[in-house]
Amino acid sequence: MNENPPDPAPALAVSGASFSYGRGPALEDITFELRPGEAVALIGPNGSGKSTLLKGVLGLVPRVSGTVTVLGQSAAPAGSVGYVPQTEDIDPHFPITLEQVVMMGRYRSLGWLRLPSRRDRDAVAHALETVGLGPLAKSRFGQLSGGQQKRGLLARAVVSGPRLLLLDEPFNGLDQENRDALIGTIDRLKAGGLAVLVSTHDLELARAVCEEVLLLNGSQVAFGPRDEVLTLDNVQRTFQDVGVEMDEHTVVVPGHEGH
């Protein structure tokens, strides 16, 4: 008798999916699964389709073939997906606190006309503690460091309890302190059962937080367990026009800045 519990159902399943902005496919033939409590890294050069895939999962880029299911449904259930884009247009001079920015993530359930309840405020406090920013709740958002702002936007994305989290280049521009804090945050979120799909050009960080890797260059190059996929041959096939170096711990793509 097999006493091992069955694998959990995928939080995200993509099969043969292609996405287009209307002038031919921007990303073709993608197939992978992401399960609760795990993270998949999207890795590829500029223009490889990483952001396109994230937006395709959200339904913001048309899918022209294949299937995408979130929690077993063809359209993501309301509130089930959190998303942190590469850039966020929050005026640094606008007088809004970190706590208020995170509360924006409750508006779907809160509504625009109802005042936050104790439950909403507790959820915001918990989200800020999760990302390590609880003591800065009353600080003006625009006066926080870039890394703290990114962690605040992550808190906003998770404050309503999504089951799938999409992160687009969250490590860009972070100093070591904020990189370490973000890694710890992602680990805590995964431990709570959240599934994470993260676009990154930082392969060392992909090794730190992701169990599996999806290599992209306009189409799928490889997908599977991190240490099996991040080989010199696979990375060279992904980053075709730049030099690649690799040692036993990490892969380095000199001069590459991912988007």
Label the structural class. Answer: alpha/beta
- The appropriate CATH architecture of the largest domain is 3-Layer(aba) Sandwich
Determine the number of helices (DSSP H or I, runs of at least 4 residues): 9
Q: What is the C-level CATH assignment of the largest domain?
A: Alpha Beta
Total count of strands: 11
Biggest sheet architecture:
6 strands, mixed
The overall number of domains is: 2
What is the CATH homology-level superfamily of the largest domain?
Answer: P-loop containing nucleotide triphosphate hydrolases
Return Rg in Å: 19 Å
Uncertain parts? none
Strand line-up of the largest beta sheet: 5-6-7-3-8-9
Mean pLDDT rating: 87
* 3D shape: globular
Amino-to-carboxy terminus distance:
48 Å
Strand content: 15-25%
CATH topology of the largest domain: Rossmann fold
Helix content bin:
25-40%
H-E string = EEEHEEHHHHEHEHEEHHEE
Protein model, in words:
The protein has 259 residues and is of the alpha/beta class. It folds into two domains: 9-80 and 162-241, Rossmann fold (3-Layer(aba) Sandwich); 89-161, no CATH class. The protein contains nine helices and eleven strands. It has helices spanning 50-58, 98-103, 107-110, 118-130, 146-158, 176-191, 203-209, 226-229, 232-238, and strands at 12-20, 25-34, 39-43, 63-70, 81-84, 164-168, 195-199, 212-216, 220-225, 245-246, 251-252. The termini are far apart. The model has no long low-confidence stretch (mean pLDDT 87).
